[in-house]
Amino acid sequence: MQTTQETTQQKIEQPYTEAAINIEQGFTPNSEIWNGRFAMIGFVSILLIEVLSGQGIVHFWSNLLSNIW
């Protein structure tokens, strides 16, 4: 029976191949989880901007951008 250290050592010694670098693309469960998290952060950010500034998000951004231009 192999110990954890031996199996870890074997994994480290294996050469990297094209198959070892497997990056999933598209609508994977992990990407959908991150999309949902970023959407929640964005929604909460919009609510905080509206509460703290006392104006809607469109009005807030138009005022912010008019000061820059």
In short:
This protein has 69 residues and is an all-alpha fold.
Written description of the protein model:
With 69 residues, this protein is mainly alpha-helical. Helices cover 68% and strands 0% of the residues. It has three helices and no strands. It has helices at 4-13, 29-53, 57-68. The radius of gyration is 24 Å and the shape is elongated. The termini are far apart. The model has no long low-confidence stretch (mean pLDDT 80).
List keywords for this structure.
69 residues; mainly alpha
List unreliable stretches of 5+ residues.
Answer: none
- Biggest sheet: strands, sense, closure? none
* Cα separation of the termini: 69 Å
Number of helical stretches of at least 4 residues = 3
What is the subunit arrangement here? single chain
Order of helices and strands: HHH
Instruction: Give the mean pLDDT.
Output: 80
Q: What is the C-alpha radius of gyration, as a whole number of Å?
A: 24 Å
Q: Based on CA inertia axes, which overall geometry fits?
A: elongated
Helix % is 55-70%
How many strand elements? 0
Structural classification: mainly alpha
Q: What fraction of the residues are assigned to beta strands by DSSP?
A: under 5%
Topology:
Layout: H1 4-13, H2 29-53, H3 57-68
